[in-house]
């Protein structure tokens, strides 16, 4: 008599991390179900049962990235270990360090999603905006901490500048721009939001 084998057990978080890495590096369209099956070593039925279809997997992966990487960026920006402008400089330096020290040109999954899926997938767009909002608030609060008398409208504009430069640095790093060139843009941004440019 043939006995049925036990269902394959797997760690959902570890599997989701692998799925996240695929979408982060390759984007939505260039990541196929076959790639996901190969990376996770799970069958289609198991993947669909745990994470839903490809779109659902993408959204879960993007949300997972937010919980890991966006929250880490926000923690850096809200840290009390460094002066606030230094924390903002660390935030802007992260795309440069990724390329220069780790040869990592994947960029930011959130930024990639902004260009890749946000305009095509309403739920992806909401996740992108939520992630950006978290970083924007943390940047804004750091700017106010650095200069408590800063005009609220100017603080908001400067926060938007920092976030825009960060996104641009991530995209440019992914496209192959040299770290030295990216550093010039970072330095100009820091001068624009602090007394270093005065």
Explain this structure to me?
- With 198 residues, this protein is mainly alpha-helical.
- It has a domain at 64-193: Orthogonal Bundle (Tetracycline Repressor, domain 2).
- Helices cover 74% and strands 0% of the residues.
- It has nine helices and no strands.
- The longest helix has 25 residues, at 54-78.
- The termini are far apart.
Q: How far apart are the termini? A: 83 Å
Q: Strand-residue fraction?
A: under 5%
| Low-confidence residue ranges | 1-6
Number of strands: 0
**Biggest β-sheet, characterized?**
none
Into which percent range does the helicity of residues fall?
over 70%
**Average pLDDT taken over every residue:** 93
Q: Which series of helices and strands comes N to C?
A: HHHHHHHHH
CATH class of one domain: Mainly Alpha
What overall form do the CA principal axes indicate? elongated
Q: Looking at CATH, which topology of one domain would you report?
A: Tetracycline Repressor, domain 2
Question: Structural class, from helix and strand content?
Answer: mainly alpha
Radius of gyration: 20 Å
What is the count of DSSP helices, taking H or I runs of 4+ residues?
A: 9
The assigned CATH architecture of one domain is Orthogonal Bundle
Observed structural traits:
disordered N terminus; mainly alpha; Tetracycline Repressor, domain 2; 198 residues
List the helices and strands and how they pair.
Elements: H1 12-26, H2 33-40, H3 44-51, H4 54-78, H5 84-102, H6 109-116, H7 122-146, H8 152-175, H9 179-193
């Amino acid at each position: 008599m043939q006995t049925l084998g036990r269902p394959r057990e797997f760690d959902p978080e570890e599997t989701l991390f692998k799925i996240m890495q695929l979408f982060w590096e390759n984007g939505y369209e260039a990541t196929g179900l076959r790639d996901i099956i190969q990376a996770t070593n799970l069958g289609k039925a198991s993947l669909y049962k745990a994470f839903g279809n490809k779109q659902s997997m993408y959204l879960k992966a993007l949300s997972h990235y937010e919980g890991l990487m966006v929250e880490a960026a926000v923690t850096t920006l809200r840290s009390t270990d460094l002066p606030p402008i230094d924390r903002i400089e660390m935030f802007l330096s992260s795309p440069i360090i990724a390329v220069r020290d780790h040869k990592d040109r994947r960029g930011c999954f959130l930024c990639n999603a902004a260009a890749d899926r946000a305009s095509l997938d309403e739920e992806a767009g909401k996740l992108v905006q939520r992630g950006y909002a978290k970083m924007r608030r943390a940047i804004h609060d750091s700017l106010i901490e650095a200069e408590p008398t800063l005009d609220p409208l100017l603080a908001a504009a400067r926060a938007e500048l920092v976030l825009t430069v960060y996104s641009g640095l991530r995209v440019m790093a992914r496209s192959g721009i040299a770290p030295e060139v990216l550093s010039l843009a970072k330095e100009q941004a820091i001068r624009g939001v602090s007394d270093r440019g005065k």
